[in-house]
Design goal:
It is a single chain. This protein is of the alpha/beta class. It has 2 domains: 117 residues, 3-Layer(aba) Sandwich (Rossmann fold); 96 residues, Winged helix-like DNA-binding domain superfamily/Winged helix DNA-binding domain (Arc Repressor Mutant, subunit A), CATH 1.10.10. The chain is 39% helix and 21% strand. The strands form 3 sheets. The protein has a 5-stranded parallel sheet, sandwiched between helices. It has a 4-stranded antiparallel sheet with strand order 6-7-8-9, with helices on one face. The protein has a two-stranded antiparallel sheet with strand order 10-11.
């Protein structure tokens, strides 16, 4: 979306400049940082619409930056990493990242990912507010309440909960959820749905919901089962 502000946190100067050029061609405003320990202050002051966050950074690594950001912000985060081990990818998402992309990559692919994350974040829903089983979800404000107490969700967690709450009892495969939540096909991404579900369950339970309202169906996927 034109004029949205993207924060690129990348210590490889040439790569940061290249990403900046491609994102600006797509009509985004871009700020670049080289150090992880600069991010928190910039986010609090300038409120970017999305962060491209490299994993290996001087000052503070991307994992720690993501952890600190999620203490006060739900800004979409796309983790960028040269580490290909799945545990690193899943850990990044468990900390609250919305997507990841591995180096080496095409700058065009990065732009496409940015567009996809922002598109699903700002998509117009068919239902603005959903209430079920003690959970209230408001699409306009991106707020969720459990028995009247607000919980903070990342954009991906919010969309995941909204999709399942809109169809209580329906079993969604991981592939279904990737397509509905992420908005595009991506090899290997089905496993990351498990990380989002895990985080969502933790946050719902921490808010005082005694019953697990998101049920895993072995070999099939997940469904939303509100308490009666």
């Amino acid at each position: 979306m034109a004029n949205r502000h993207i924060l690129v946190v990348e210590d490889e100067t040439k790569l940061a400049v290249l990403l900046k050029e491609y994102l600006e061609r797509a009509d985004y405003r871009v700020t670049c940082l080289e150090r992880g320990d600069q991010v928190i202050a910039v986010v609090k002051q300038h409120h970017p619409d999305l962060i491209l966050l490299d994993l290996m950074l001087p000052g503070m690594d991307g994992m720690e930056v993501c952890r600190e950001l999620r203490k006060f912000s739900t800004v979409p985060i796309i983790m960028v990493t040269a580490k290909v081990e799945e545990i690193d990818r899943l850990l990044g998402l468990e900390l609250g990242a919305d997507d990841y992309i591995c180096k080496p990559y095409s700058p065009r692919e990065v732009v496409a990912r940015v567009k996809a994350v922002l598109r699903r974040l700002h998509a117009q829903p068919s239902e603005k507010r959903i209430s079920s089983g003690g959970i209230d979800l408001d699409e306009d404000t991106h707020q969720v309440w459990i028995e009247g107490h607000e919980i903070k969700l990342t954009p991906s967690e919010f969309k995941l909960l909204k999709v399942m709450m809109a169809h209580p009892g329906r079993v969604f495969s991981r592939s279904d959820l990737v397509n509905l939540v992420q908005g595009y096909e991506f090899e290997g991404y089905e496993r990351t749905i498990d990380s989002h579900i895990k985080n969502l369950r933790k946050k719902i339970a921490a808010a005082g919901m005694e019953r697990d309202v998101i049920t895993a169906i072995y070999g099939e996927g997940y469904k939303f089962s509100p308490p009666e």
